[in-house]
Amino acid sequence: MRINTILISAAIALAMISCNKDETPTPDGLMSNGSFENGGSFSTDGWSVSNGASDSDVPDGGGSFSLRLNPASLPGEGYADYIIEDLEGSHTFNASCFMRSFDDWPGSITLKKRTADNVVTILATAASSDAGWIEKTISASATFNSGDVLIIHLSAGSTEIPIDSKYVLFDLVTIEE
Asked: What is the sign, positive or negative, of the torsion defined by CA atoms of 137, 26, 77, 144?
């Protein structure tokens, strides 16, 4: 009887997983919500965002939503940060994202290390002003002490006079060790 209950529970769980059409990529362990959606809705959970909004333009496999970052008026910045804590020792990271530029406006992905004393070091960065969806990949190695964090920084930068047609879309952000 107990084995039947376990088998039935496993079959129900498998059926529920198989029927999930959310299209939200599975978290890779270091971060979650690199697709900017949760349960079929736009979401920036886990991200700190400035000058951002949802957009339905997505790359292949990107689900239903991407993050639109607009450049901010100087001295501000249109950005999204994802912070990874509890890293100690030496680490090598590979990060990637898909981005798409509008009206030749550049966007970037950057890996930063912030120490417990708030000293920020740029570890790697890649930029694009490509009008089509393009994947950008960066790699970086660093040693972390207690209290240090890794920041995945997406940016649409800043400008003196924001223009509605100039912005950058981001989607499918990943980071692996």
From this structure: negative
User: Alpha helix locations (H) across 56-103?
Assistant: none
23-176: CATH topology:
Jelly Rolls (2.60.120)
Question: Please, are residues 146 and 88 in contact by the beta-carbon 8 Å criterion?
Answer: yes
pLDDT tens-digit readout, 70-92: 999 999 999 999 999 999 999 99
Whole-prediction pTM: 0.84
Contact 173, 95 (CB under 8 A): yes
Number of H helices, E strands in the chain: 1, 13
CA distance 73 to 158: 6
> Residue 171 belongs to what H/E stretch?
strand 167-176
